[in-house]
Amino acid sequence: MTTLLATAACNLDSDILNACYPLFAEERVQAIEWSFDVLFNRNVLPPWFEELLHAYSQAKRLTGHGVFFSLFSGKWLPEQAQWLETLRATTKRFPLEQVTEHFGFMTGKDFHAGAPLTIPYSATTLRIGRDRLRRIQDAAQCPVGLENLAFAYTSDDVKRHGYFLHDLIEPVNGFIILDLHNVYCQLENFGIDANELLALYPLHKVREIHISGGSWEPVACDRDRRIRRDTHDDAVPAEVFSLLEMAIDRCAECKYVVLEQVGSGLKTPASRQQFYNDFLQMEKVLQQKNKSRHGNSQNNFLPLHVLNTNPPPEDEFLFQQQRELSRILESDIPYNEAVTVLRRSSLANSVWNIENWNPAMLETAMQIARKWKGE
């Protein structure tokens, strides 16, 4: 089994860096996960941050985590082509051990900004997703992976997610980030047993695990219910640490275990101390687990094939459905009106299966899309 590395998600954010500083000073951070595309519009980095990235890159302990590529957009967009070219230049400047992206497509008119939301699991989205992963792999020249999504519209989507992830990554010998707070969201929002859900993921393909915190959000359509959201703005719940203990022995290829939190949740001394405590608790778990992990990795997750030169596959109807859904979710219309508009849309009686969407999850999708639109 691969040795587990205690990793921090560290970006050019003063609150995150202040929280990470004591951990760097004590030489506890064994690897860094860097959301590289957040800085794509910055041509110049502060010298001290550049030195930090170079130090971890030279030690082969720097990983890249993308946010804005929008893997499943039905149309191949200029922003995606530019994203790949910038990634290619970034990996030459800071060689990365791996590159990962979020599952789903981004809402918003250009699909290069907005909220990451799920897509129908179909032959069309599978073909598009596989092609885009190959292009990321070609640009980065390193292992490529996808993170499981926290959001779903139905329990059937939750249970099919792991299989679909496996089918996506298999042709490129890719891997999975198992985000355990995302798993926790699914357990809470759909009442699924943890062992049952973990068994539905290809855990032999997990190369990285995320832990983080989140929040509870009320929904107007069900006054007695709260939805667990993956907002990354609070401490790691005890339930997520329990999931870490449960899952980690089943993930023989796992190498990086990453503590994530956004800067908005790290503005007070108390929150930064809690981040420190969470890292130490994670570190303690990994140290204990490493005592019983022996042998080398059986999969290096390196590319199996070179990228062909065929044009990127597209689906104009899927693209128009995504745009229509984005407009509905991001609009300021009330929930009940959104339901009516959705039922009259091109998504009705389609592979999107909107007729079976959980009302609370649809309302949550509206909250997510509108929040991202305002950022």
TrEMBL record:
InterPro entries: MbnB/TglH/ChrH (IPR007801). It holds the Pfam family MbnB_TglH_ChrH. It comes from the Bacteria. This is DUF692 domain-containing protein.
